[in-house]
Design brief:
With about 260 residues, the protein is mainly α. About 50% of the residues lie in helices and about 10% in strands. It has eight helices and eight strands; from the N terminus they run βαββββααββαβαααα. The strands form three sheets. It has a three-stranded parallel sheet with strand order 1-2-8, covered by helices on one side. The protein has a three-stranded antiparallel sheet with strand order 5-7-6. A two-stranded antiparallel sheet has the order 3-4. A hairpin with a 7-residue loop joins strand 3 and strand 4. It is elongated and about 85 Å long. About 5% of the residues have low confidence.
Length: about 260
């Protein structure tokens, strides 16, 4: 048992590790407040589940598709295993897995309520608070990024200009060796490439700042298409939807041709 000397404990990451850690810590530190923070809106991390906004029973596990439990692990962690099974969060996988190379005593399970239900179970058990995903000000972020790239482009151009002037004067000196000239040529060539890159990046972002500033163009990993539209980033940008549709149509044509 740990001494209850921690008033507040903050855990970074609302995945399985963070959720189980919170539950175990709460068992020992009953009077401590446990807070879990995560970059995504939803919990689960690499064991997240996407749910349809139209069909409640329609879910897609974005992480693990099934859980494999070796016999010795099942015995060692019997408490957790029995708890999840009794709560209907784990159920034996019926059927075979193609290419399965696990040991003969390994049992495979599926998660009827989605793989993220395991994470949510332990978070609920820990009684921890989860910090809501912050609303990101996309227009301001990309406007500042655009300005930074412009400043970087100007700075690189100035460095290139001054270095070229230095090289021009330096090579006129009788003491300038061939090794020095070769080194200068390499540096000048690198600066030219750097100027080209920063210029292209700055021009590209400046020319498409309206597109990048749209709040609907970005989604956080773990969020669903049907999330609250008042939150920034839950839905795909219209242009992205069009590209996906074109890709789907193209694949459909390939299927027809192959048949």
């Amino acid at each position: 048992m740990l001494a209850n000397t921690f008033e507040r404990i903050v855990i970074a990451g609302a995945g399985m590790t963070g959720a189980l850690s919170a539950a175990l810590l709460k068992f020992d530190l009953t009077s401590s407040e446990i807070v879990i923070i995560d970059k995504s809106r939803g919990t689960g991390g690499r064991m997240s589940t996407s749910r349809s906004n139209e069909v409640e029973a329609s879910t897609v596990d974005l992480g693990a598709q099934y859980i494999s439990v070796a016999k010795d692990y099942q015995i060692k962690h019997k408490t957790f295993h029995d708890e999840l099974v009794s709560n209907g969060l784990l159920a034996p996988l019926i059927g075979s897995i193609e290419g399965d190379r696990s040991a003969g005593d390994t049992v495979h399970y599926v998660t009827p309520k989605g793989v993220s239900s395991l994470v949510k179970h332990f978070i609920k058990k820990s009684g921890s608070k989860s910090c809501p995903h912050p609303k990101i000000n996309h227009p301001r972020f990309f406007t500042l990024l655009c300005q930074v790239l412009k400043d970087l482009d100007r700075a690189v151009r100035d460095v290139s200009k001054h270095y070229n002037s230095k090289v021009s004067l330096e090579h006129q000196l009788p003491t300038a060796s061939q090794k020095l000239k070769t080194t200068d040529e390499c540096v000048v060539s690198s600066l030219i490439s750097l100027v080209t890159c920063t210029s292209k990046l700055s021009s590209f972002l400046s020319g498409n700042i309206d597109f990048f500033s749209q709040t609907g163009g970005y989604r956080t990993r773990g969020s669903s298409i049907g999330n609250d539209p008042t939150m920034e980033g839950p839905r795909s940008n219209p242009a992205t939807v069009q590209f996906r549709q074109k890709a789907a149509n193209y694949l459909g044509l390939l299927t027809i041709v192959s048949i």
